[in-house]
Specification:
CATH topology: Rossmann fold
Shape: globular
CATH class: Alpha Beta
Order of helices and strands: EHEHEHEHEHEHHHE
Number of domains: 1
CATH superfamily: NAD(P)-binding Rossmann-like Domain
Radius of gyration: 19 Å
Strand content: 15-25%
Strand order of the largest sheet: 3-2-1-4-5-6-7
Distance between the termini: 55 Å
Number of strands: 7
CATH architecture: 3-Layer(aba) Sandwich
Largest sheet: 7 strands, parallel
Helix content: 40-55%
């Protein structure tokens, strides 16, 4: 004899109640969607972004507890932000920074520095600032990519960053333990950043991915946000890189 379940018997409790999530680069795209998901799981959210108007709108959308507008790659501003956080926090996700493409022999040195600064050096500085604020068992979560794993004359510094980030994250996981440190490596994600990079080629790229990816659809910010929140809540995860590309790496180039 089976017992009938009641309508409320399968209801799941939110997993981030009483916790605080900081999203650096949280005013749009993956960062904003992760903030929205974290709020749905009961977290208090703190957002940062470079564009004050866009950040203000994001704060209203998710009901953020606090926000600050600054460029995360400004070392002094980032240090001041962490120093001024009012309470201990539980999770920090960094989505700030974009890819820098171009042949290495043709790239301006300043652009090469920016490509490294916006990912590798930013991760180090975030770790230094967060080390004094994140509770034991909390998370630092960084964004990387998968495309740069395949050598290409047009990827340039992006390939170097793709290779460097997993090693950096693994070392930080040892240094910051018991705070956990992880990396999400994404393929194409349908975000405003992707739209700005591809321009008129955006629809063609979407159609191509729908036809060729094993999942037969395009990966969106909500997919990445779901993975991010899972990494925050699963306390067995640290020092690892988690791919999310819809099987893009499995498709012949």
């Amino acid at each position: 004899m089976t017992t009938a379940s009641t309508p409320g018997s399968t209801r799941r409790e939110p997993e981030l109640v009483g916790q605080t999530v900081v999203v650096i680069g949280g005013s749009a795209g993956i960062g904003l969607e992760t903030a929205r998901r974290a709020r749905a799981e009961g977290a208090d959210v703190i957002l940062t972004g470079r564009n004050p108007q866009r950040l203000k709108q994001a704060v209203l959308e998710v009901g953020a507890q606090h926000s600050e507008a600054f460029d995360a790659n400004d070392a002094a501003s980032l240090e001041r932000f962490f120093r001024g956080l009012p309470t201990p926090i539980d999770h920090v996700m960094v989505t700030a920074g974009g890819p820098h493409y171009g042949p290495l022999l043709a790239i301006e040195l300043e652009d090469a520095r920016r490509g490294l600064t916006e990912h590798v050096l930013l991760a180090i500085q975030v770790a230094q600032g967060a080390s004094r604020k994140v509770r034991p068992g909390g998370t630092l979560l960084f964004m990387g990519g998968t495309g740069g794993r395949h050598p290409s004359a047009v990827l340039g510094i992006a390939s170097a960053v793709t290779v460097a980030m997993p090693a950096l994250v693994a070392n930080l996981a040892l240094e910051l333990a018991p705070v956990r440190v992880n990396l999400i490596a994404a393929g194409f994600v349908d975000t405003p950043l992707s739209a700005s990079l591809l321009g008129e080629d955006l629809d063609r790229r979407r159609d191509e991915l729908r036809a060729t990816l094993p999942i037969r659809r395009v990966v969106g910010p909500a997919d990445v946000a779901a993975l991010a929140v899972h990494i925050m809540t699963n306390t067995a995860l640290t020092g690892a890189t988690y791919d999310i590309d819809g099987g893009q790496q499995l498709v012949a180039r």
